[in-house]
Write a structure and sequence with these properties.
heterotetramer, A alpha+beta (80), B alpha+beta (717), C alpha/beta (233), B: 717 residues, alpha+beta, seven-stranded mixed beta sheet, 28 strands, globular, C: 233 residues, alpha/beta, nine-stranded mixed beta sheet, two-stranded antiparallel sheet, 11 strands, 21% helix, 24% strand, binds adenosine-5'-diphosphate, binds magnesium ion
């Protein structure tokens, strides 16, 4: 089954990439954009079809490797 | 009842009383915040100041000594060099990538604050043993952070230094040194002169980054408690810093800057008060004009924020518009936040209300000064007495198999190939040699730099160890043909409230000072990092030096490790000592023993060897100073780089593995060194495809190379 | 002025390129990315660095700078345009060259001399070189891993628009001498009209022996020569 | 309103981050993971509350700037 991990920077921490991309969008005329925040997505395909187990395992992977808990938050979603 | 505010901010009751005495009233919250950070160990050097005065700081070529953002020395013909070193130890443990990245950003600002573009960075770093996953994670993160920031900001990293020891497992050391090159007329200082001049804040918006970082992270021990106190992690933005550098350089070029100060520890508090105090002036600051990244920040937070990539420029009122326009061109924010005033008072307004009013100078000049008790640690004599027991006979080939695999000896290219070390087209001798050598375009001048530390020797004898890192650094630049010219030091120590740590500190300063005096070189700057202690365990006393060497003219073909050729003679320049095994790589790595007493430096011999080495650099294809692992490792490194073996003939294996100071391997194409002021003797010949020690064994060149090259990759992947 | 060296915010090799041009006796001048006028330049170099911090995607934001429409216009006249490292990435993003550059195979920044073999002399970058010549030139990038969709890659190869490949010292091309995972060891390419070229290694870092290698000269000399004798199309 | 843009590498094109992370996960003992693909998240806050218009605009931003159509696919989701 397929699980997706969404990783974003913690609230309040600087997001230089978001800031510069926001500037670029404004230059392109998208004045209606008020905030831009960057994150990473990691799509995982895992054996088995126990969604609960898959999510639990993905969360463990985030704690151990995929996310940096000091500066990032993560969430896990089952895709199908 | 709850703890009083000043204690929560790491301030003692006595210090609080001192503040009350200065203000003649209890401080307002914002004022307390400012004193707590500015009087922190990190910003005020309250435990070290009393002893740093011991350093020799004078020389005819010193233009700016300790006290400014960077030291500056004269290179002749109107050229100056600016150098500085800083530590970012605790932040790098909290978040290795960002901690190291922001460390680079900070040291670069210290250089371009002086009026010029930084042209190179060095990174002396220390970690726990790499068999620990956490230590591997820390090292990969730190190296990636230095690369990620340094490469993107557009300043090459020309080398560094690395050590491993258990004491760094919970307290890695990340020191960064930077070098700038400028014309005399470019030099800018921080003083804010001229009543009515305007303080313009340039660069990134101010957020809650590292609130209290300086006082709390770097001025208190790193135990569980501080986990809770963690300031929010500072995120480095090399792109913002790059724009800031270009903007400042153009401001200087147009003569728009009266004085300038970078924002580092203690942010706006530090920059505004230091600028004002340096000029004997005061300043009115309006926090409502500070561009904020997060709304609803308190005055104290805005004053203490350590948001990165910010500078405070003092400009004449009539120039403000031009300054703002220039900032706009470089796409950075700029805001006039203050005015220089008479009378020395720093007044801070927020929401129209006065939130702080204090003597600007009191934040720095009236900071507490402690002469903390110091006492030699128990058990040191016992350690000195326990010299490593040496075998009768040693197979040096086998010893090399372990030594070349020591991550502190093996090939460092895993690290420096992640760093741009060529930008600006100055790099004549790149990392991987002893010292790095830079040319100064359009002249015949060259600058060499080596960063060195030796915590294992300093742990056994901080005075001798402190002296020897200066001597080693001196030889590292001498082999490029450069003469030792100036030093910056980074003193990384444990908890200064412990007499044993204070003793280590004072002994170190003494030893380093003696060596600098013998070499006739000034200390032009540095940094002290105390409280490198975790759960009561202090790190080794870890002084680190960055030594600048200068040559004019630079050798046409500077010696390199890869220039040895079949048939050339291998000579050993320096004293005949063979007894120095205390804390040697052989004793630690092969025998597993780190006791004994390191040999003392010999100032006369040391100076003679340095000077002779500089002369030899004019015509020797290879010069390599003997350090970790002794002659055996020095020769092996040369053989591996040159792709050719060697045969050594010595009458005692100890000649191959001992680490006594002041020795250099010289490869001479002909009959050797015509000069005999310094002892020099032939120890072998370049050639073949093995490194052969005669009766003391041998190792095939290919095997040696493979072990040496894989020492870091096999551990770090 | 003959050669314009474009400076984006975050560009950092501009002064090195100008220095190299001087060493080769050509004159080059810096042009700010907000300018919309190449002031009569006969050729353009987009130097290395980290335009806009490499944020979002390397080269992505730079391609919208006002100067880029001028660069495009000049390229369409057949004038020589060269992208080095980050400049190559910008040209790909701008659609002036095929493909894109992604993170190195080992996810580590690589700064070291590599060997590249000249595959074609039909470009402003390689005109003065010999096919098969092996050059030692510093690489300095995190995103130097060349990729392109299969059809475009096939077309590129078929048209002989790959001008440089990573190789060993003898010119042998294999995975062992592919520093960053680039598809088909591609280090440099040109466009169909062969007046626009891009490469990841830094020839400007290899024009003076004292810095380790002068192998970059032949490439930059090719470019300078083509600027002096433009092939208008 | 808030819109989330997900950008992933096109099938079949090199995804070094995915490959490297897959290897690391296997080393950590997650043998059940069969595929790992990396991508970027860009969270946008935009004025107005017309979801359809917001998505259309975000898609246009992807075509013009946020994604590189040569090597990347993108999708846009309304968060709230
Ligand atoms: N160990 C040292 N040896 C010599 N000078 C030192 C040492 N530690 C600090 N200094 C000098 O004290 C001044 C203030 O240091 P610091 O507060 O770290 O500067 P900054 O505020 O720029 O970070 C600097 O000029 C520095 O060179
Ligand atoms: Mg400073």
């Amino acid at each position: 089954m397929r699980v997706r991990v969404l990783i974003t920077r913690k609230e309040g921490l600087a997001d230089p990439e978001g800031v510069e991309t926001h500037r670029a969008l404004r230059d392109l005329g998208y004045g209606g954009v008020t905030e831009v925040h960057f994150g990473r997505i990691i799509n995982l395909s895992v054996d088995g079809d126990d969604a609960v187990a898959a999510v639990a395992q993905a969360e463990e992977m985030c704690e151990r490797l995929l996310a940096n808990p000091v500066i990032e938050d993560y969430s896990v979603e089952v895709v199908e | 009842m709850t703890e009083p505010a000043h204690r929560r901010l790491g301030m003692t009751d006595d210090e609080y009383d001192a503040v009350v005495a200065i203000l003649e009233r209890p401080p307002e919250p914002a004022e307390l915040a400012m004193y707590s950070v500015m009087w922190s160990e990190h910003c005020s050097y309250k435990s070290s100041r009393a002893w740093l005065g011991r350093f020799p700081t004078a020389a005819p070529w010193v233009v700016v000594g300790p006290g400014e953002n960077a030291g500056v020395v004269d290179l002749g013909d109107g050229w100056l060099a600016a150098l500085r070193i800083e530590s970012h130890n605790h932040p790098s443990f909290v978040e290795p990538y960002q901690g190291a990245a922001t460390g680079v950003g900070g040291i670069l600002r210290d250089i371009f604050t002086m009026g010029t573009r930084p042209i190179a960075v060095w990174d002396p770093i220390r970690f726990g043993p790499l068999d620990e996953p956490k230590n591997r994670y820390l090292m990969k993160g730190v190296v990636a952070g230095i690369a990620g920031y340094g490469n993107a900001v557009g300043v090459p990293t020309l080398g560094g230094e690395i050590e491993f020891a258990d004491c760094y497992s919970h307290n890695p050391l990340v020191n960064v040194m930077a070098l700038g090159l400028l014309r005399r007329e470019q030099l800018v200082l921080s003083a804010a002169s001229g009543e009515g001049n305007v303080a313009v804040l340039l660069g990134a918006a101010t957020g809650r980054d590292g609130i209290g970082g300086a006082s709390i992270l770097a001025s208190a021990s790193f135990d569980e408690a501080s986990g809770a106190k963690r300031p929010s992690v500072q995120i480095g933005d090399p792109f913002e810093e790059k724009k800031l550098i270009e903007a400042c350089l153009e401001l200087y070029a147009r003569g728009l800057v009266v004085g300038i100060q970078d924002l580092g520890a203690a942010g706006i508090s530090c920059a505004t008060s230091e600028c004002a105090a340096a000029g004997g002036m005061g300043m009115d600051v309006d926090l409502d004009d500070v561009p904020l990244r997060e709304a609803d920040m308190t005055p104290g937070e805005i004053l203490m924020s350590e948001s990165q990539e910010r500078m405070l420029a003092i400009v004449a009122p009539e120039d403000v518009d031009e300054v703002l326009a220039l900032a706009d061109k470089w796409e950075i924010e700029a805001a006039a936040i203050g005015t220089v005033t008479h009378g020395g008072a720093l007044r801070v307004v927020h929401d129209g209300a006065l939130v702080a009013e204090l003597p600007a100078a009191s934040l720095s000049e009236e900071a507490p000064l402690y002469r903390r008790p110091s006492q030699q640690p128990g058990g040191l004599e016992a350690a000195w007495a326990a010299a490593p027991p040496l075998p009768e006979h040693v197979d040096v080939g086998d010893a090399l198999r372990s030594l070349l695999d020591d991550p502190a000896i093996g090939d460092r290219s895993w690290i420096y190939e992640q760093y741009d070390h060529q930008l600006f087209l100055n790099t004549v001798v790149e990392p991987g040699h002893d010292g790095s050598l830079l040319r100064i375009k359009g002249t015949h001048k060259g600058l060499a730099v080596s960063t060195d530390g030796d915590s294992w020797r300093c742990r056994l004898d901080p005075r001798r160890g402190g002296a020897r890192i200066i001597w080693e650094a001196a030889l590292n630049v001498a082999v490029t043909g450069a003469r030792p010219y100036a030093v910056v030091d980074n003193l990384n120590f444990g908890n200064p409230e412990k007499p044993a740590v204070m003793w280590q500190f004072r002994e170190t300063v003494e030893g380093m000072s003696e060596a600098c005096e013998a070499l006739g070189i000034p200390v032009v700057g540095g940094n002290v990092s105390f409280y490198n202690e975790t759960d009561g365990v202090d790190i080794h006393p870890t002084p680190v030096v960055g030594l600048l060497g200068f040559c004019d003219p630079m050798p046409e073909q500077p010696p390199r490790l890869d220039r040895a050729k079949e048939g050339m003679g291998i000579w050993l320049l320096g004293p005949e000592d063979r007894g120095d095994f205390a804390a040697s790589a052989y004793a630690r790595t092969v025998l597993g023993i780190a006791t004994g007493r390191p040999a003392d430096a010999d100032p006369d011999m040391g100076s003679a060897v340095v000077h002779r080495t500089i002369e030899l650099a004019g015509w020797c294809p290879v010069l390599h100073d003997v350090s970790l692992g002794g002659v055996a490792v020095a020769v092996a490194e040369m053989c591996i780089s040159s792709g050719v073996g060697a045969r050594l003939e010595v009458d005692d294996w100890r000649d191959l593995l001992n680490e006594s100071p002041h020795r250099v391997i010289a490869v001479l194409p002909d009959r050797g060194d015509p000069n005999d002021v310094v002892p020099i003797r032939r120890i072998g010949t370049v050639g073949g495809d093995t490194i052969d020690f005669g009766e003391y064994g041998s190792i095939p060149l290919g095997e040696a190379a493979a072990i040496w090259r894989d020492a870091l990759p096999r551990r770090l992947g | 002025m003959t050669i314009a060296v474009v400076v984006f915010p975050g560009t950092n090799c501009e002064h090195d390129v100008v220095h190299a041009m001087r060493v080769l006796g050509a004159d080059a001048e810096l042009v700010w990315h907000r300018d919309d006028d190449l002031a009569g330049a006969a050729g353009v170099i987009l130097p290395g660095g980290f335009a806009h911090g490499d944020y979002l995607r390397t080269g992505a934001i730079a391609r919208f700078s006002p100067i880029m429409s001028e660069v495009r216009r000049l390229a369409e006249t057949g004038a020589p345009v060269l992208g080095i490292c980050n400049g190559f990435q910008v040209l790909c993003e701008a659609g002036l060259l095929t493909g894109a550059l992604v993170a190195n195979r080992d996810l580590r920044f690589i700064c070291r001399p590599v060997h590249v073999r000249v595959e074609s002399t039909d470009s402003v970058l390689t005109a003065a070189a010999q096919v098969g010549a092996v050059l030692r030139i510093p690489l300095n990038s995190y995103e130097g891993n060349y990729v392109a969709p299969p059809e475009e890659l096939a077309a590129l190869e078929a048209a002989g628009e790959v001008v440089l490949r990573y190789s060993d010292t003898s010119g042998a091309i294999d995975e062992a001498h592919n520093p960053n995972g680039s598809t088909n060891n591609i280090a440099g390419i040109t466009n169909a009209a062969s007046n626009v070229a891009g490469l990841m290694p830094h020839p400007e870092r290899a024009v003076e022996r004292i810095l380790g290698s002068a192998d970059g000269r032949v490439l930059l000399e090719s470019f300078v020569a083509s600027v002096r004798t433009p092939v208008r199309t």
